[in-house]
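Researcher: Structure for this, please.
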Amino acid sequence: MTCNLTTITPDIKMFFNYRRVRNINRCNNFNRNKNEDVAQHSFFTSLLAMIITKEFFRNYPHMENQVSMSVVLEKALTHDLEEAITSDIPSNVKHISPEFNDVIQEVICRMMTECYEDTSDTFHDILEISINSKKGIEGSIVSLADILELSIYCCEEVCAGNFFMKGLLIKCIRLVENSNFYKLYNLPFVNNLVESIKMLSAKNGCSIAAIQELYHL
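Model: Predicted structure, token format:
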């Protein structure tokens, strides 16, 4: 059977392009012991965002009607979807200054709009979710989960002896602790996670016994 590319719709082409994120390694300007791709990062960010949202509901039940779990998960799942087109822009580059990050986001938004031009309304909805993934209170949760997931990856690298990642880890923790959501809402899971990352990545903090306890080996 001859492959007639004209029958492949823009939506199908875009979905196939989404799958490229599984081949895009994060922190690509750092020495790494083990790679983490964008698809893996998006999964763990979504999982963290779900946990944070559930704990937020339990600790602040009066806010439950102001936050949508489905919106949180949609935003978390798509927050890096543009990297299927742009590839990964390292965090230490994006966050060199707020002004520079704004410029990067503007260019990415323009690129994505052009790429989605011929797709259906369904895929335009996905684009809109992705572009606005860090906006609103749901976006604040996703933003926190995003940087926490990077912190965990850096922590695992440092625990494995990769001290090239220590500087990025310190910066990530600073970003977490300075985030508005983190400062406004006292969530035990997030607080304990941050303290655990600090302890494990401290000098001599990651012993064999600590690793065995952490991973139930």
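Researcher: Any notable elements?
Model: The domain at 9-215 is CATH 1.10.3210.10 (Hypothetical protein af1432). The chain has a mean pLDDT of 90.
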